Amino acid sequence: MTYYLLANPNSGNLRGSDKILKLINYLENTAIQFKLFETSAPGQERNLISKILNKMNPQDQIVIIGGDGTLSLCMDVLPAKHPFAYIPTGSGNDFARSLGISMDPIKAFKSIQLKNEVEFFVIGYDSTDLKGFAVNNIGIGLDGAIINAANSSKSKTLLNKIRLGQLTYLFAALGVLFKKKGFSVRINEKEFDNAFLFTLTKHPYFGGGVKIAPNASNLNDLINLIEVDRIPQVQIFSLLTKLARSVHLKDPRFHNSTSNQFSITLASDEPVQIDGEAYQISTGSKLHVWTEKRTIIK
């Protein structure tokens, strides 16, 4: 048996390369057969998955190594019925946290060797602008604007080089938090006229461990919608405090609903983040989301 490793060394604000090297040294020292396929630029996951599927035998195993964004891009092209394994090397690692996957690459790999298959659900999405699958969440408005601002920040490259890349998102959040305006969105039959935070999530975690939807689970087919209207600036930090303590859903300003599918129509162009990657949804676009079953070896 051969383990086919699809790895993103740039994950985790460039810390991913250290974990990959640690794993490779372990595999070589224990004479475990593997073939390594590394990304060198964003978006290469599609071609690498295709190469791996063409080369591997039925008894071989795909292991995806990277952050949540890497895993999400792989889900876009990996056939739904094809089991895979995952070793987290990102900065947030919310998906791994949701399924109890070890953050240590060697411990995670040893668990993979036990061949324990677990069925879980991802979010499928489709619109005129976007199409694919998300393993964590889709955020329109606030978190989309934060990711977009962080990715376009002039300081991001420097902070990544000195391994302080997460500060980019903190600075971006502080800049966006008070500038982002509310927006109008229709979801199924409900209208939100002044939405500010609008997130569809498949499991509890958001932003590197914050429990935005404490009762959510990717072991069932339900998607959780969390929405907050734009509120006065003086009230924002009190809501963030409740969010950090996972007691926010008791606050009537938070809207929470669940369904296995949603249809979303926007009245304006809005930034969107999908598993930490920045995109844009245009005015009038209808975004349809649903769930799809996948199998992970963990």
From TrEMBL:
A GO molecular function held by the record: ATP binding
Cofactor: Mg(2+)
Keywords: ATP-binding, Kinase, Lipid biosynthesis, Lipid metabolism, Nucleotide-binding, Phospholipid biosynthesis, Phospholipid metabolism, Transferase
Keyword field contains Coiled coil: no
Top-level division of the source organism's lineage: Bacteria
Domain DAGKc per the UniProt entry, residue ranges: 1-130
GO annotation terms (biological process): phospholipid biosynthetic process
Pfam families cross-referenced by the UniProt entry: DAGK_cat (PF00781), YegS_C (PF19279)
Entry keyword annotation includes Repressor: no
Similarity comment text for this entry: Belongs to the diacylglycerol/lipid kinase family.
PANTHER family registered for this protein in UniProt: SPHINGOSINE KINASE, SPHINGOSINE KINASE RELATED PROTEIN
Protein name per Swiss-Prot or TrEMBL: YegS/Rv2252/BmrU family lipid kinase
